[in-house]
Amino acid sequence: MQKSVEKLVNEGKMLPLMEEFYTIQGEGYHKGTAAYFVRIGGCDVGCHWCDVKESWNAELHPPTETDVIVENAVKYSDVVVVTGGEPLTWDMTLLTKGLKDKGAKTHIETSGAYPLTGDWDWICLSPKKVKLPTQDIYPKADELKCIVYNKSDFAFAEEQAKQVSSECVLYLQPEWSVRDKVIPMIVDYVMKNPKWKVSLQTHKYLNIP
Q1: Contact status, residue 55 vs residue 111, Cβ threshold 8 Å
Q2: Is 2's pLDDT higher than 90?
Q3: Mind listing the pLDDT tens digit for each residue in 23-78?
Q4: Interior angle at CA 119, CA 117 and CA 123, nearest 5
Q5: What domains can you pick out in the chain, each with its CATH number?
Q6: Binding-site annotation, residues
Q7: What is the reported pTM?
Q8: Residues annotated in a binding site for [4Fe-4S] cluster
């Protein structure tokens, strides 16, 4: 990456854009609603079951002017979901300001592994054991989404739930590749612990992005 471009990326004036698309939100609190997704490249959290590993290397995704990302997004929707990769690898201040200036609602899906930047209307925190969230994001999370890959993930989810606010909506979501194994465990757990809700990746059942 050229030094001049790298500087713009570090300032949040450009971002490594992996993909952008208009679709139906498939997961969590806003499932079933239309939204424009902006997937930002770059992630060093390294979940072994990640289904978008091609997002990890930011160098593979072209630095794109943040203003262009904003203009593309607001053509389609007034709800914009920023995801990754790990979007908080980069400074989100200018992206969210641009979106809000155009009247869009800003949502983020993040592991919380990096300091929170940007002005968000909805924060979906999906913490990972390998790189825990920074402490400042817990009280600001609107939604806690814990992925269940095996039985030990329930204990981790409870540890994370202790750190968010009482208004935060709590979700357990099966990891897709082992869903047949863990869905019965999740159903049983939620019935015994009804503060939790089940989140499914409904977009995969609908066969949409």
Answers
A1: no
A2: no
A3: 999 999 999 999 999 999 999 988 887 878 888 898 899 999 999 999 999 999 99
A4: 85
A5: 3-205 (3.20.20.70)
A6: 24-26, 39, 43, 47, 49-51, 83, 85, 126-128, 209
A7: 0.95
A8: 43, 47, 50
